[in-house]
Write a structure and sequence with these properties.
about 40% helix, about 300 residues, two-stranded antiparallel ribbon
């Protein structure tokens, strides 16, 4: 491993248990904290995610000021389940409709900046089934206690659903694409255990300064852009323990990997493509094509400034 990456790991890696909520509440001061849950067709799990955060970190101890679910064009009762559990729910289609609406996780995170007020924003996936609210408090730890940290990434042991128990690994796209790419092209980030983790926290003003891919490339883009602009010392990572969630089909992961590579290539000076056509041959030797969007939203701060100017 790159010596600088190993040294960064030793300095900037902690465990969620290192950050007791009482200590974090004392460190919070006048800062506001928003928890944002992007969700698309997650009616079976989003309510529990919202309920746990509200019970533990809003009601029991006032560490979190708002819990917002960004409904990303769901076709099920995701919005109803989230609202019933106590979240404020916004559809991406209703937030700044004058800017258009695009499918994808990054779009939901970008648009959340229009409807949240937190100085610190914690993103939590909606499909979690084995987790705890220490995900939120753990990620807040580095940000509340060190003004030099602007991005906190989570990592965890993944609880597989194949009867094999706990595995110390990232997802398939993480292990086969993201981490090898970083080892090749950004070795100073090789010690980031799970660069694509959906659980992360960021200072609002920093995230607002970055361009945001509208799909699954948002996590790798934020990591790369933060390292380029602020250096690796502005990034921390937190061991969150175990995590389980719904797994995606292999062909969907292929599209995710394609977008990730397009986003990463752009940050190495590659072409700023808006979409990539991903062909796949079926068993009957017929080709099907999937269009993978690689669109990026401009920095929120620029859009907000333009709106203010009229």
């Amino acid at each position: 491993m790159d010596p600088a990456a190993r040294a960064w790991f030793d300095r900037r890696t902690s465990r969620a248990s290192d950050w007791p909520t009482a200590d974090l509440l004392a460190a919070k001061g006048n800062q506001r904290v928003s928890v944002v849950v992007p969700a698309r067709d997650e009616e079976s799990t989003v309510g529990d995610v919202v309920r746990q955060v509200r019970d533990d970190l809003v009601t029991a101890i006032p560490l979190v000021d708002e819990v917002v679910v960004m409904d990303s064009l769901s076709t099920d009762d995701t919005a109803y389940a989230a609202r019933s559990a106590g979240a404020t729910v916004h559809s991406v289609a209703d937030v700044r409709p004058d800017l258009g609406v695009l499918p994808g996780k990054g779009e939901a995170l970008w648009k959340s900046l229009f409807v949240t007020s937190g100085d610190l924003v914690v993103f939590i996936d909606a499909d979690l089934t084995d987790w705890g609210t220490h995900f939120v408090s753990g990620l807040l730890g580095p940000l509340l206690t060190d003004p030099g940290v602007v991005l906190a990434k989570g990592f965890y042991d993944r609880v597989l659903d194949l009867g094999t128990g706990v595995a110390v690994e990232g997802g398939r796209v993480t292990e086969l694409v993201a981490r090898p790419w970083l080892a090749l092209h950004r070795p100073e980030l090789a010690a980031v255990v799970q660069p694509l983790a959906g659980e992360w926290a960021v200072r609002r003003d920093h995230f607002a300064s970055l361009p945001v891919p509208t799909g699954y490339g948002v996590e790798i883009a934020t990591l790369l852009d933060t390292a380029s602009r602020r250096g690796t010392e502005a990034i921390a990572q937190v061991d969150l323990g175990n995590r389980a969630h719904r797994h995606q089909h292999l062909h969907d992961l292929g599209a995710m990997a394609t977008e990730l590579l397009a986003v990463a290539d752009r940050r190495r000076g590659g072409a700023a493509v808006e979409e990539v056509v991903l062909p796949r041959m079926q068993r009957d030797r017929q080709w099907v094509e999937r269009t993978v969007p690689a669109t990026e939203r401009p920095p929120f701060a620029e859009v907000a400034a333009a709106t203010a100017r009229g």
